[in-house]
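Cross-check.
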Amino acid sequence: MNTTHNKRMRIFFTGVGGQGTLTATTLLARTALDAGLDVVAGEVHGMAQRGGVVESVMLLGGWRSPKLDLMEADVLLGFEPLETLRALPYLQPGGSVFSSSDMLPPLSVSLGKAPYPLMEHIEEMTRQVAGQYHFIPCRDLGAKAGSVQSGNTVLLSAVCASGLLPFGVDALKAAITKHLPHRLQEVNLKALELGSAFLAGR
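Predicted model, tokenized:
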């Protein structure tokens, strides 16, 4: 039996409205489904307006519902660093964090209701909890690929390239080709290359 392919895993996604966090969750879930895995995915918390907090989960390996409690996530995918910091309580001790390092202040910060911490503080707090963590300039790399929005694919590519998931970058590449509109494929495939190359260069 391929234990890596069948292992149970819980992934927590967090970002802000307008980033495409739920679209990224759907793409990774479709990648897992195409790889023959049991997948449960769903939105935990979402704000329709741009700048609101968006959270979702993806569970691999035979879970019954998209439910995830504090200190249960094996992997945390953060599309915005402050939201990564806020979501750290969901990560199990020694779990893995993949986060964008590009700040996109959420609504609470924009309205002056909350301060934005220094990246050094975010990284230090992450280091105290995570077994491994990677902060990646997703928006910058997305722009280099041809679209800032493809920064989400940069992040997905990095986690796929890490070897933590029961599928790799090739599976994500196949899912992009299969599930994204043709007009979006080229830029996202380039973003995929940039994300995996960034992780390989760490």
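DSSP finds nine helices and six strands in the chain. The mean pLDDT is 91. Passed to J.P. for a second look.
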